[in-house]
């Protein structure tokens, strides 16, 4: 069934769709930004593998040393995203994509594969119980909620950086750390910036635009993280509607 899937390469990245935000025009600037980001990451061993159909069915992973997340580990692979949506669910595509990543990692002589999940299911994170089916176990937990899960091939394990444990910042302003990986981010940042300015809400938008910055963020991070009143709140990518709900809860 391998012919059902395609890996993005430097030769096809501008011809193939990126799965996310396929038909939503307001996110096309984000798609363009993602292509630019991927062009550099593919050179570093980043893999974007997707179903060869027009749908949201894909896996993204990279060597941990080059992965833009605050996680360290020797010779590991990090999974950013494993997504199967809509009518494509329950057809075995998620299993095939994950097994491809695991086999690819073994062929490269890696020590294991890791991913961020959570004790309770959260948007934009792979389900803990699903990962457990394939042998992933929790190796570290932050705030009894966010979990670093790993499938070790040699007994070694990865770990969060020390900065992650802070889960707090000095500023009490609404603060968002964001990357360029997700096509939804640019439009959401625009919505948040516009809403905060219109409503006189102090807001700091911090772009994580280097590997070094991503390894030192003061919280769990997979391309987005929100702080309010000094405390970490969520990895959920916020548009204006979600932002309003978050502020109303405070």
Annotation keywords:
250 residues, alpha+beta, Aminopeptidase, Glutaredoxin, 2 domains, 7-stranded mixed beta sheet, 4-stranded mixed beta sheet, 6 helices, 13 strands, globular
Name the average pLDDT: 93
Gyration radius, rounded: 18 Å
Number of domains: 2
Relative strand content: 25-35%
Number of strands: 13
Describe it.
The chain starts with a strand and ends with a helix. The chain has two domains: 2-159, Aminopeptidase; 163-249, Glutaredoxin (3-Layer(aba) Sandwich), CATH 3.40.30. The protein is globular and about 55 Å long. The strands form three sheets. It has a seven-stranded mixed beta sheet. A four-stranded mixed beta sheet has the order 11-10-12-13, with helices on one face. Strands 4-9 form a two-stranded antiparallel ribbon. The protein contains six helices and 13 strands. The chain is α+β, with helices and mostly antiparallel strands. Helix 4 (185-198) links the parallel strand 10 and strand 11 (203-207).
Write the layout of secondary structure elements.
Elements: E1 5-7, H1 28-42, E2 47-51, E3 57-63, E4 71-72, E5 76-84, H2 93-107, E6 112-118, H3 128-132, E7 137-142, E8 146-152, E9 159-160, E10 174-178, H4 185-198, E11 203-207, H5 211-214, E12 224-228, E13 231-234, H6 240-249
Parallel strand pairs: 5-6, 10-11
Antiparallel strand pairs: 1-2, 2-3, 3-5, 4-9, 6-8, 7-8, 10-12, 12-13
In short:
This protein is an alpha+beta fold. The protein has helices spanning 28-42, 93-107, 128-132, 185-198, 211-214, 240-249; strands at residues 5-7, 47-51, 57-63, 71-72, 76-84, 112-118, 137-142, 146-152, 159-160, 174-178, 203-207, 224-228, 231-234.
